[in-house]
Amino acid sequence: MLMENLKKPKLITFNRLWPFLWPRDLKSAKTRLILAIFTLVLSKGTLILVPVIFKAIIDTLTGHASPCDVLMWISLYGAMRILSSFFSEMRDITFAAVTQRALRQVAIEVFDHLHKLSLRFHLSRYTGGVSRIIERGTKSIETLLTFLTFSIVPTAIEILLVSIVLSLMYDMRYTYVIAGTMAGYIFYTLKLTEWRIRYVREMNDADTGVQSKSIDSLLNFETVKYFGNEAHERNRLDEGLKVYEKAAIESKWSLSYLNMGQAVILSVGLILILGFAALDVQKGSMTTGDLVAINTFLFQLTIPLFNLGFAYREIKLSLVNIEEMFSLLQEPYEIRDAEDAITVTDIKTGITFEHVDFSYDPERSILKDMNITIPAGHTVAVVGSSGAGKSTLARLLFRFYDVIGGAIKFDGVDIRKISQKSLRSLIGIVPQDTVLFNDTIHYNIAYGNPGASEDEIIEAAKKSEIYKFIQSLPEKFETRVGERGLKLSGGEKQRVAIARTLLKKPLFFIFDEATSALDTKTEKLIQDNLVRISKNKTTLIIAHRLSTIIHADMILVMDKGIVAESGTHDELLAKNGLYTQMWQRQQQAVEVE
Question: For the segment 206-244, what is each residue's pLDDT rounded down to a tens digit?
């Protein structure tokens, strides 16, 4: 009944988990699992012999047996206790490897899956909430395997063996009482656990919300300080904690009802069996050793029975958490490689946007019938007002999203027919919003090419005008940058990002406001370096400061999702259109400054 109740609603979860326990390509894991089950059976078998041997000891002491007989039974009793403990420990040791490998494989699969999901998914989810789901899920797998393998199955085996031994050695009344106690206990446990599981779900949902808000607030620590909204953040977090508090209290009350009912059922069964045994001893149909043996059997049975209820509760809770984690694995991939996807290693003719339409939301169009050509070895700049769709071009080139209409082509090949890995290996980007890993400056620069030599890393730092700054730091390249790089200034972060991109040595550069956070002098130095580095390289510059793209072979002026003007700097000024207006406004601002 218990196993059926576990299997029916969560069969999919168990089926999804089984390949991690019984991997096709790992014989050692299968061997350990078989060995763990074998040692489990031996452990319970030797444990069941303990009350029988204990009965023999008592009967020997109350009779006229020789000291040698007493010593023999005591030695045998000790040997069975030691063997039972030994086999139990061997079971734990052998199964630990199976459990930990399964946890590792599940964690890696979920991690890989999350990285394969689209940018749209990650922008719509709280990072803290996702990490909390994974954390609860992996821990719950360990809990599930531990209780299912070492509590549910062993308890079932032990109950069966005890019932058989009692029915063979004593009156059937004892077997009937045990069976009735079992049935009542299991029925009550299942019903109460099903009832209280909703409180646990509420706790999990509240916990995920609290973690998400907490992490989101701490990641935006400076913003909170800028606006003096500490009290607002505290109240926002407290609202989530109130929900969790209420659900936690209700969960505790429901657990108390469950524990009290279980205790009553087991106590009634214990009283009945001890009562029968005491009467039989008085009648002379049982010995004192029999009474002690039955009491020992009951004592051994009571502990796993309590564990059985606890194990069932934990398994149900674990299944909720595992199901929530596996639901992440059910998230479909928005961006997939074509079955016959090709690998590209060079850019020969160039990149084109052919009648591209795109929108993040059906209600708001971003790009409309966009036509752009970036010839190989040329530099094309894109300018325009905020919200014109400039940064969207970079996201589409990396294929974070697929176009809704038209196509983006590399050397005439639709990027949807190119593998994502090879496509992205060609492109290096310095994004407008630079985010660094919470590690050292060395790690963040080397991230552009983890296999790069120290000389290459230093050279990239020099070209991005960050080397002298790094050398002025006490820990130099080993200086930690903090969460999201917050220990560095905006300009320092941007130069690290430039060094990281230069180290990648891409064939196609994208500079998205790459020097927007720099002072004029440093910007000029880096601009000269970037122009030199990207010479004869295919380059797309997304810029706000028009002075940084005068050298471009072609400048595109975007307005409301379309290319409104195109030409060189001089050609666009001659047209006296949008570009001219933007140029004049910036020149006036420079003069005022």
Answer: 887 787 778 778 877 767 776 777 888 888 888 888 888
The alpha carbon of residue 279 and the mean position of all alpha carbons in its chain are separated, in whole angstroms, by: 60
Strand bridging mode 562-567 / 554-559: antiparallel
- 82-102 pLDDT per residue, tens: 887 888 788 777 777 777 777
Strand 379-384 with 538-542, pairing: parallel
Q: Measure the CA–CA gap between 506 and 427, rounded to whole angstroms.
A: 5
What residues have CB less than 8 Å from 70, skipping those under 6 apart? Answer: 57, 60, 61
Rg for the chain (alpha carbons), in Å? 35
Read off φ and ψ for residue 330, nearest 5 degrees.
-85, -10
In this prediction, residue 124 has a pLDDT band, given cuts at 50, 70 and 90, of low
Q: Which pLDDT band holds residue 515 (cuts at 50, 70, 90)?
A: low
| Token pair of 327 as six digits | 């639901």
Q: Could you give the 3-state DSSP secondary structure of residue 537? A: coil
Residue 238 tokens read as 């407290």
Asked whether the beta carbons of 433 and 493 are under 8 A apart, the reply is no
Rounded CA gap, 260 and 427, in Å? Answer: 65
Could you report the per-residue pLDDT of 156-183, keeping only the tens digit for each? 777 777 777 777 787 788 878 877 887 7
**Among the ranges given (202-206, 320-324, 462-466, 586-590), the one the predictor scored with the smallest mean pLDDT:** 586-590
Using CA atoms, how far apart are residues 510 and 502, in angstroms rounded to an integer?
11
**Residue length, the chain?**
593
Alpha helices, DSSP H, located in 284-438: 288-329, 390-397, 420-426
Among candidate residues 503, 498, 499, 528, the one with its CA nearest the CA of residue 513: 498
Which residues have CB under 8 Å from 445's CB, separation 6+? Answer: 457, 460, 461, 477, 496, 499, 500, 503
Tokens of 534: 């990207």
pLDDT 10s digits, 408-449: 999 889 989 999 888 888 888 888 777 788 888 899 888 888
Cα separation values, 103 from 14, 135, 309, Å:
14, 11, 25
Strand-strand pairing, 538-542 and 508-512: parallel
Phi-psi region of 418 (alpha: psi -120 to 50; beta: other; left: phi over 0): beta
Task: Confirm if 304 and 154 have CB atoms less than 8 A apart.
Answer: yes
**What is the residue whose two structure tokens read 């002690």?**
292
* Per-residue DSSP letter, 486: T
Residue 340, classed as helix, strand or coil, is: coil
pLDDT tier for residue 6 given thresholds of 50, 70 and 90: very low
Strand-pairing partners, residue 558, are 384, 563
Name the CA dihedral angle for 79, 80, 86, 87, rounded to a multiple of 10 degrees: 150
Inform me whether the pLDDT recorded for 127 exceeds 70: no
Segment 537-562, tens digit of pLDDT: 888 888 877 877 888 889 888 887 78
Exposed, middle or buried: residue 25 (CB in 10 Å: 0-12, 13-18, 19+)? exposed
The amino acid at 496: V
pLDDT bucket at 29, cuts 50 / 70 / 90: low
CA distance 316 to 196: 10
**Residue 461 φ/ψ, nearest 5 degrees:** -65, -40
pTM of the shown model:
0.64
- Distance CA(541)–CA(552), nearest Å, equals 8
